Amino acid sequence: MSYLSIILLAIALSIDACVVSFSYGLVFNQNRLKNSLALAVCTGLFQGIMPAIGYFITDFVKSFIEPYSAFIVFAIFTYLGIKFIKEALKEDKEKQLCIDFKCLLLVGIATSIDAFSAGISLSLYGNKILKPSLLIALITFINSFIGFHTSGKLKHLPVKNLEIFAGLVLIFLGVKAFF
C-alpha cells in the first residue's frame, strides 16, 4: 500500500474521531483546551495502537471479532449518546458530563475499531505497521482537535439543544456501524 493510500486511509479513519470530538466540543464549555487535548490524545492513541494490534493478531481476531464489530461500535456510541441526551434533559445546573477516563476509553475504543480492521488489511497487504500507525495516530489527533474547536462556532445556539444534538450524532455513529 502506497504512502498516499495510507494517508487517505488515515484521514478516513480519523473522521469518526473528528465527528465525536465535534460533538463533545458542542457540550463542553469549560477547560476547552484541556478537554480537547485529552480527547485528541485518546482518539489518536487508540487509532495508532489498534492497527498495530490488528496487524499482529490478524488470523486470530478476524474470525472472532469481525462478526461483532458493528454491534460493539453501536453499543458504545449508543451508550455515550444516551448519556449526553440524559444529561441535557436533567434540570440540575451541575451536570456531570462524560469526559472522564472511562468515557475517554470508550470513545477511544469505539472510534478505533475500524483502525483495528485496517491493521488487518495492512498485514494482508504486506506493509510494515510502525509508520502507518504513527501516521494514523497523528492525523486522528489533528482532526479530533480541530473538530472539537470547530464546534465552538455553534455555541450561540441553546446549550440544551446542542447537547441533545451531540447525543443524537453519537447514536447515529453507532447505527452507522451496521451499514
Task: Tell me what you see in this structure.
- This protein is mainly α and 179 residues long.
- The protein has one domain (3-176).
- Helix content is 79%, strand content 0%.
- The protein has seven helices and no strands.
- It has helices at residues 3-27, 32-56, 58-64, 69-89, 101-125, 130-150, 159-176.
- Helix 1 runs antiparallel to helix 2 (32-56) and helix 4 (69-89) packs antiparallel against helix 7.
Specify the overall morphology: globular
| Number of continuous helical runs | 7
What fraction strand?
under 5%
Helix content: over 70%
- Output the radius of gyration: 16 Å
For the biggest sheet, the summary is: none
In the predicted model, the low-confidence regions spanning at least 5 consecutive residues are none
Number of domains: 1
Q: Provide the succession of SSEs.
A: HHHHHHH
Give the total of beta strands. Answer: 0
Class from helix and strand fractions: mainly alpha
Mean pLDDT score: 83
The first-to-last residue Cα distance is 25 Å
Topology:
Elements: H1 3-27, H2 32-56, H3 58-64, H4 69-89, H5 101-125, H6 130-150, H7 159-176
Give a quick rundown of the structure.
The protein has helices spanning 3-27, 32-56, 58-64, 69-89, 101-125, 130-150, 159-176.
Descriptive key words:
single chain, 179 residues, mainly alpha, 7 helices, 79% helix
